[in-house]
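yo

u said u wanted the structure for the complex thing, so here. seqs first:
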Amino acid sequence: DAKTTQPNSMESNEEEPVHLPCNHSTISGTDYIHWYRQLPSQGPEYVIHGLTSNVNNRMASLAIAEDRKSSTLILHRATLRDAAVYYCIPPGTSYDKVIFGPGTSLSVIP
Amino acid sequence: SQTIHQWPATLVQPVGSPLSLECTVEGTSNPNLYWYRQAAGRGLQLLFYSVGIGQISSEVPQNLSASRPQDRQFILSSKKLLLSDSGFYLCAWSPGGSGQPQHFGDGTRLSIL
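structre next:
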């Protein structure tokens, strides 16, 4: 019943950009797309969210496809501290419940 | 600014003992509150959420219960712990309304012996 698809794992070299993809083909027109990340032994941390337009904040950028069936989280320069599991939150959870799938485990290579 | 406090950070309990984990939020009013559990190496499972005092919704049948005695206080309890209750328990809050992100506490690592 998973409504999103993310790669299980990805690797990046330090100081290079990272593009983390997520497919959410069943998204409805009013569903926000949320991204969180979880560092080892910590609780998840909100990263960014958006509806239609691309979004930027101090942590990352979110690129949303025109049909909204996919999105990409962009870390402009990966650091060792960015090694974490990144979760793209499924559509249909925009009101008050956030459902976490397995996410993408990002490794950053020095 | 808003902060969320969750304690204790680590807890070791024997099978059959009771449990009480507390979570409080500061700097906001009428937040939505959540309890999650994460088994080792697994994703997060939503256990309970609350949109107001005394209002608790349970996502999965289990050995646990939740209460919200005050607006910014959320408590996770059990009368008798099972081995399967071991895990990483996380409390979170969000503002009410559509599309609002959740903010998590530091979690409680619970080990049942």
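Residues 12 and 111 of chain B are 5 Å apart (CA to CA). The interface with chain A takes residues 32, 34, 36, 43-44, 46, 49, 51, 59, 90, 92, 94, 96, 98-99, 101-107, 109 of chain B (CB under 8 Å).
cya
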